[in-house]
Amino acid sequence: MACAKYRLAAVNWLLDSCGSLQGFGHNIGCTSRKTIAGSSIGAKAEELNLIVAVNAFHGYVHNRRCQLANHPLYLDGFGIEDLETCEHIFSSSNNKYMELSHASLINEYTPLLHVFKTHTSFSDEDFVRWKAEESEFLTNLALEPPSDAFAVAYVEELEKLRSVEFVRTLFQN
After folding, report:
1. What is the C-alpha separation between 97 and 43, in angstroms, rounded?
2. Backbone angles phi, psi at 158, to 5 degrees
3. By CB neighbour count within 10 A (0-12 exposed, 13-18 middle, 19+ buried), where does 29 fall?
4. For residue range 57-105, what is the model confidence (pLDDT) as tens digits?
5. 26 within 8 A of 55, measured Cβ to Cβ
6. What secondary structure does DSSP assign to 85-146, as a single string?
7. How far out from the chain centre does Cα 51 lie?
8. DSSP 3-state assignment of 83?
9. How far is it, in rounded angstroms, from Cα 117 to Cα 81?
10. pTM above the 0.70 mark?
11. Taking CA 56 as the corner, what is the angle to CA 62 and CA 33, rounded to the nearest 5 degrees?
C-alpha cells in the first residue's frame, strides 16, 4: 500500500496542477482507476473527470472487457496516443526499435478511413454502437454455460483416468 500512496500523491498533484479533463495511462491503469476511486481523492478525480487508461500495448494482455473499458483506442480524448512514450524512448535507445511517426500514421490512414466510409454504409456512430454491444455481450458472458463447465470437467476426469491407467500398466509390467 506504500506504493499506492505515492501514486495517489502524483495523481493529486496532476489534478491540482492541470485541472479537469486530464488523462493518463500505465500498465495497471484498470487497477489504478479503482484505487483512485476508493481513495481520499476519489471524489476530486470524479469531479474533474480524470480518465485513467492502460497503455496501448500493455492493454492487449488484459481481457477484452477490460480493453473496452480502459484501452485508449476506445476512450474519448486520447486520439492516436498510445501512452507508451517512455517505451518508445527506451526502445529507440537500443537501436532495435523502428520509430513510427504519429503524423505519418495520420497521413497514411486518414484517406483510407475516408475511402472506407464512402464505400460502405458505416458511420462513426456504428463503431460506437458496436463497442457498446460487444461490451454488453462480454459482460453477459462472464460465466460459462453449465453444459460447457460439465464437458470440461468430464474431459479433465478422463485425462486423470488415462494417467492412472498408464501408471498402473507401468507397475504391472
Report:
1. 41
2. -60, -40
3. buried
4. 765 666 777 778 888 888 887 777 778 777 666 666 555 444 444 445 5
5. yes
6. HHHHHHHHTTT------HHHHHHHHHHHHHHHHHHSS--HHHHHHHHHHHHHHHHHTSS--H
7. 13
8. coil
9. 22
10. no
11. 65
